Amino acid sequence: MPRATCAVVFLTTLLALLPSPARAADSSSSPNDFLAAWRQAADPAADARAIWKQFAEAHANEELGQLARLLVVTAHLRANDLPAAQAALPVDFNFTPANPPNPSAAELRKQLPAAAKALAARIKLLQLAQKLRAYFGKHVEYPAALHDLVPAKLATEADLVDPFGQPWTYEATANSLDPKLPRQKYTLSCATLKLERRDAAAGLASITDAPKQVALSSVEPAEARAFLKGRRADGAMGPTVRIPVGGEIEDLTLWCVHDNFIILGSQKLPRVLVKE
Q1: Which parts of the chain fold into alpha helices (H)?
Q2: Are 192 and 162 in contact (CB under 8 A)?
């Protein structure tokens, strides 16, 4: 066989063995891997931080991989490890653009920065609670205003607003058992998220549970939409409605749709609902 013909045959065979971009995209295991990781991390005995860190590193430039970076933070918060949660909180997100464009991935990409701010708000609420306890330990009362933490060298001006740029809601009151002692208890919340300080970490436990206020009927990933039922006031499920990514049902926002599951946002944090 002539040398030129051999070269053509060799190159043709080599190109046939290499996956095309479309084939590589079709064979992506990211959604299946994510669902497997989600189920593993839901086990109370599992090391959720390690599970999500491994997934994030394996899918670093994908939307689900970037979401996993946030789930590392939630796992640190659930373990009450504030320094680790603060260190793991992403300051930016990096993606490989989808080709062809994927509306579902684009919506998840849009939601991730707000989700990072929601986690930052929880971290700051817990940090402020520590600062308030330190103030109480020295003055035997809580400050009349959060700003009093600044001259006490316990906080900075930047600590006085939430990650969305709004002031925290704070009030110190007397203890009902001894009203003569002022400012013996306080309330602290993030008005943007309607989130109380006491729920900042406790509420994170629910993100591994399927939201009970909706039921998933079917999905259309190619159309980036899901068919859901909302729970009525009497507890029964209402009629099925078609929700596109970015749409809302009850207090949930549809973030993305995959063959076997969808991701919904609740208080700007992810909730997974699996297709049974």
Answers
A1: 3-17, 21-26, 30-41, 48-58, 63-78, 82-88, 103-139
A2: yes
Contact residues for 256 (Cβ-Cβ < 8 A; gap 6+) = 63, 104, 105, 107, 108, 224, 245, 262, 263
pLDDT in tens, 27-71: 356 899 999 999 999 898 999 999 999 999 999 888 999 999 999
Quick one: pLDDT at residue 27?
35
Q: Write the burial class of residue 147 (CB in 10 Å: 0-12 exposed, 13-18 middle, 19+ buried).
A: middle
Q: What angle do CA 61, 73, 53 make, to 5 degrees?
A: 50
Contact partners, residue 97, CB within 8 Å, separation at least 6: none
DSSP per position, 98-140 = PSS--HHHHHHHHHHHHHHHHHHHHHHHHHHHHHHHHHHHHHS
Q: How far apart are CA 1 and CA 44, in angstroms?
A: 65
Which residues make Cβ contacts (< 8 Å) with residue 41, sequence separation at least 6?
Answer: 48, 51, 52, 71, 75, 208
Rg of the chain over CA atoms, in angstroms?
Answer: 24
Within 18-62, residue ranges assigned H as helices are 21-26, 30-41, 48-58
Distance between CA 247 and CA 67 in Å, rounded? 19
CB count, 10 Å around CB of 110?
13
Domain boundaries, the chain: 30-121, 123-203, 206-274
The pTM of the whole model exceeds 0.85: no
